[in-house]
Amino acid sequence: MIRSYTDHAANERTYLAWLRTGVAVIAFGFIVDRFDLFILTMRDAVSTPQVTKEQLDTLAPSVGTGVGEGFILVGIVFILVAMARFVRTGLLLDDQKIHAQGIGMELSLSVILAALLIAATVPLVLPLL
Questions:
Q1: Given this model, what pLDDT does residue 75 score?
Q2: pLDDT value for 66
Q3: 1 CA to centre of own chain
Q4: On the CB side of 115, how many CA atoms lie within 13 Å of its CA?
């Protein structure tokens, strides 16, 4: 029997949640990166006035420029951090000493993700202003 099995199981569930979050961020990055194709398809598929078509033409290149790749990279970083965190926590669970809890890694990844979300919405909001 594994000593403190419930703690190790909780560590594994947390690891899987981090992996799921990383994969979701990567998938969102692909969507953001290819959103310009959706805008161009919408422009051609819908019978809209010429002014609206011109607005969609100007909006399409600015959406997803670099932001999608940023989300993909952050998703990969999430997965790598999850792996490092899982191994480190597993080793700390087996150690008998009391260790301080840190939130620096989670906080920094949250700030980076929030900055990318803001960068993704700016091109969508600017034409409305």
A1: 93
A2: 78
A3: 37
A4: 9
**Closest C-alpha among 71, 80, 78, 84 to residue 117:** 71
CB-based contact 67:32 (threshold 8 Å): yes
CA atoms within 13 A on the CB side of 32: 27
Q: CB of 4 within 8 A of CB of 93?
A: yes
Domain range annotation of the chain: 7-124
**Token pair recorded at residue 60:** 């399409």
The amino acid sitting at 2 is: I
**Rounded Cα–Cα distance for residues 48 and 13 (Å):** 49
Candidates 33, 36, 16; CA nearest to 72 is 33
* Residues of the chain predicted below pLDDT 50: none
Long-range contacts of 108-115 (CB under 8 A, 24+ apart): 109/74, 109/77, 109/78, 109/81, 112/74, 113/25, 113/74
Cβ–Cβ < 8 Å for 33, 60? no
